[in-house]
Write a structure and sequence with these properties.
The protein is mainly α. Helices cover 73% and strands 3% of the residues. It folds into 2 domains: 30 residues; 196 residues, VKOR domain (de novo design (two linked rop proteins), Up-down Bundle). A hairpin with a 2-residue loop joins strand 1 and strand 2. Helix 2 packs antiparallel against helix 4 and helix 5 packs antiparallel against helix 6.
Length: 232
């Protein structure tokens, strides 16, 4: 190989290194930074929301067993005709899973699901590296839990025409759980990899505005539908 060819090869290698370094620097620049985008904060919020959801699932399960042992008895969270745990618990939507002639209350599945999310949040707080497929499945599981919660809420609002106060707490905690999980998936797990748009969304804290609007929108829908009756 001539000196010219050798020098050309060296220059090409230097160019590739420079390009790789530039890409790495650009990738590092666009990544969300700061305490709010770290594993400690994102997974802590997820842990708190999941713990609340888990506690509420236990309470709803206990209420279900109480009603099974004492048919016709009203629950302590029966406030009025609209805010009524008993009305919701007695609907078919409260036990949509049936197998071998048995009905399984939704709250039992809530205990199982939220226990998993609490465990995942603890793993995230411990900063243990997880496979990308695991992070993806976790996010999809959070999305499924959110969709299921919203379906139950819409059934309560527009079909059953009664709301369970504990169910509302569960719905809002599941919403915050999904917000935190999505934040951690992008900012901590870097998924989807190198997606500049999502990185910018969190880096510029647009998520804070969207999350506030999201929560307010849920409250407005509830108040518009049953506002006067909630305080009757």
């Amino acid at each position: 190989m001539s000196d010219f060819e050798s020098q050309a090869a060296v220059d090409a290698a230097d160019d590739e290194t420079s390009v790789g370094t530039a890409v790495a620097m650009d990738d590092d620049y666009t990544k969300p930074r700061g305490w709010r985008h770290g594993a400690t904060w994102t997974y802590l919020i997820m842990l708190l929301a999941s713990a609340v959801a888990l506690l509420v699932s236990f309470i709803l399960s206990a209420d279900t067993l109480k009603m099974a042992r004492n048919p016709g008895q009203k629950l302590n969270c029966d406030v009025n005709a609209v805010l009524s745990c008993s009305t919701v618990a007695e609907s078919w939507q409260a036990e949509i899973v049936k197998f071998a002639g048995l009905s399984f209350p939704n709250a039992f599945f809530g205990i199982a699901a939220e226990s998993v999310f609490v465990t995942i949040a603890v793993i995230g707080l411990s900063k243990v590296a997880v496979p990308r497929w695991f992070a993806l499945c976790t996010w999809l599981g959070g999305l499924a839990a959110l969709a299921y919660s919203y379906w139950l809420t819409t059934q309560s609002l527009f079909v059953i025409n009664a709301m369970c106060p504990w169910c509302l707490v569960l719905m809002f905690s599941t919403t915050v759980q999904f917000m935190a999980l999505s934040h951690a998936t992008v900012a901590v797990q870097d998924m989807p990899s190198g997606h500049a748009g999502l990185r910018k969304y969190y880096r510029l804290n647009f998520d804070l505005m969207v999350d506030v609007v999201w929560i307010v929108a849920l409250i407005v829908v509830i108040l518009v539908k049953d506002g006067p009756m909630l305080f009757a």
